[in-house]
Amino acid sequence: FSAQVLEARDLPVKDVTGSSDPYVKVYLLPDRKKKYQTKVHRKNLNPVFNETFIFSVLYDDLRQRYLQFSVYDFDRFSRHDLIGQVVLKGLLDSTDLHQEIEYTMNILCAPQ
Length: 112
Description:
Blueprint: E1 2-7, E2 22-29, E3 35-37, E4 48-54, E5 66-73, E6 81-88, E7 108-109
Antiparallel strand pairs: 1-4, 2-3, 2-5, 5-6, 6-7
């Protein structure tokens, strides 16, 4: 199945420049081996990613799996800051193999 990262809005400022350089990592959990990453959007608090990622997984396996979208601020010289994340559980309930379903979810702040 595929997961598409469309956009993020009103991201927090993480850089001294007064902006952020966001990108998203997409994990198919519980194993963290299957993951993808969007491009970095420089100095953008409302990035439009519009990227699609294909996960090769058996339909029945979706019952035990969930998606995690982790939003990071890219930093060239130090560790990238985790801005927050979104988790989508119940993939079989929220997946229709015949049509796209679009979700808008709040990004949960990273624990300090």
